[in-house]
Design goal:
mainly beta; 19-stranded mixed beta barrel; two-stranded antiparallel sheet; globular
């Protein structure tokens, strides 16, 4: 289940036109352990708070606060009417056509001959109790193509009392790069991703890419005129990426490289994604294949192999969504049910416009009632997770099961509840 503060952070990315999927980074969903309760609120369009309480043998909790200079007035936040996919990230996320960065003049605000515009920023802090661990995040958009992200953790149990991670990201649409520095071992790193095909910043002569259509439409909306354009659409995308990192203190480094092929919404067949990653120093090779077999069903598999030790591993997983039609009940709705249906449609539309819910699930007549996720590997380890809604609560319950038998067949069971207003 997605944390409420992460949900607001993703909304910040969408509102500031940052593509969080255009970077080098189904089967690794976490199962809850013990009992967890989250209570959150978006008090104002710029401020959110969240409180968590967990019991995993020991009673613990956390307090977190988030502030953004970019107001999010249209962001739906109440769990009673929020579409479930907003809190339940899909295992298969459909890649969208690349869009060019915003023109620099879009960010300019002038007053009496002087520029008064500021760069959007997000501040986040979280205190874990009773450990007294403090976690902080500073996120700032420096330009239409650049973003700075700084994470910090303060804990007396960590070396030097904590660590700081700074990440400078650059995204031009065609390619993206991230430059990293961590105080832990003085780690330096860089990683990048290149998308083959048409450049969204320079569409081909005589053709209009989907990204060009988006920019033309937004410019016309800003000028008060709405026009429609048409052109050829890209049906798939091939991307290649790599990362290199080196620790100055421990004198060790590493690297990895990978490729990805994915279909886009213009593809007439079923959507699918194939990836291949290689770590040449460790000899690890990993390949995965994911497909959305239907509007409500996704399947995925992954194969891992080490060329040095000949160890291998296989994981298969599935995700199945269940719809709940608010219009059932002999075709008649009470006045309260009609109001609930109207509120649900409004929040789904708001979430769709913000990019928080995928198009096909946002346009459905019925709300999504729940989602079942399952995975199994070659060692017989099974993970099950069900996420749904009860009244005004969003819940997640799951278990980790060892099918080989033995004393501990069930390795862990958990229930997580979340409420927001």
């Amino acid at each position: 289940m997605l944390d409420f503060t992460d949900y607001v952070q993703y909304a910040f990315y969408e509102s500031s036109h940052w593509n969080r999927n255009n970077s080098y980074a189904l089967l690794d969903f976490p199962t809850p352990l013990g009992l967890r309760l989250h209570i959150s609120a978006l008090s104002t369009p710029q401020f959110a708070s969240s409180y968590s309480l967990a019991s995993t043998g020991l009673l613990c909790g956390s307090l977190s606060y988030l502030y953004t200079s970019l107001a999010l007035p249209a962001l739906p936040s109440a769990t009673r009417s929020l579409p479930l996919p907003a809190f339940t990230p899909t295992s298969y996320r459909q890649l969208l056509p690349l869009r060019p960065p915003d023109p620099p003049w879009w960010w300019e605000i002038w007053h009496t001959g002087r520029r008064i515009d500021n760069r959007d920023a997000l501040l986040y802090g979280r205190l874990y109790l009773p450990q007294s661990t403090l976690e902080a995040l500073y996120l700032r958009r420096l330009s239409p193509t650049t973003q700075l992200k700084i994470n910090a953790v303060s804990d007396v149990r960590l070396p030097n009392g904590g660590s700081v991670l700074a990440l400078l990201a650059q995204d031009t649409g065609r390619w993206s790069a991230e430059y990293m520095y961590s105080t832990d071992s003085a780690l330096l790193g860089v990683r990048g991703l290149y998308n083959f095909g048409p450049d969204p910043r320079n569409p081909g002569i005589g053709t209009k890419s989907p990204a060009t259509e988006t920019v033309v439409e937004e410019v016309n909306v800003r000028s008060g005129a709405r026009e429609s354009v048409s052109g050829g659409e890209q049906v798939s995308r091939f991307s290649a990426g790599a990362e290199v990192y080196y620790g100055l203190l421990n004198k060790s480094g590493g690297m990895s490289t990978g490729v990805r092929f994915a279909t886009l919404p213009a593809h007439t067949g079923f959507p699918y994604t194939m990836t291949l990653t290689l770590n040449p120093l460790m000899g690890n090779l990993s390949s995965s294949y994911s497909v959305r077999a239907g509007d409500l069903l996704s399947l995925s598999s992954r194969f891992d192999f080490n060329v040095y030790s000949y160890e291998s591993g296989v994981v298969v997983g599935t995700e199945l969504w269940k719809l709940r039609d608010l219009g059932e009940k002999d075709g008649r709705l009470s006045r309260e049910e009609e109001k609930q249906l109207e509120r649900t449609k409004e929040t789904i539309e708001a979430a769709r416009r913000g990019g928080l819910v995928e198009e096909d699930r946002a346009t459905r007549g019925g709300d999504i009632a729940g989602c079942l996720k399952a995975r199994v590997n070659q060692r017989g380890m099974v993970g099950l997770l069900w996420e749904g809604r009860v009244k005004e609560l969003v819940y997640s319950c799951g278990a980790s099961i060892d099918m080989r038998g033995g004393k501990d067949i069930i390795n862990g069971v958990g229930l997580e509840l979340q409420y927001s207003s």
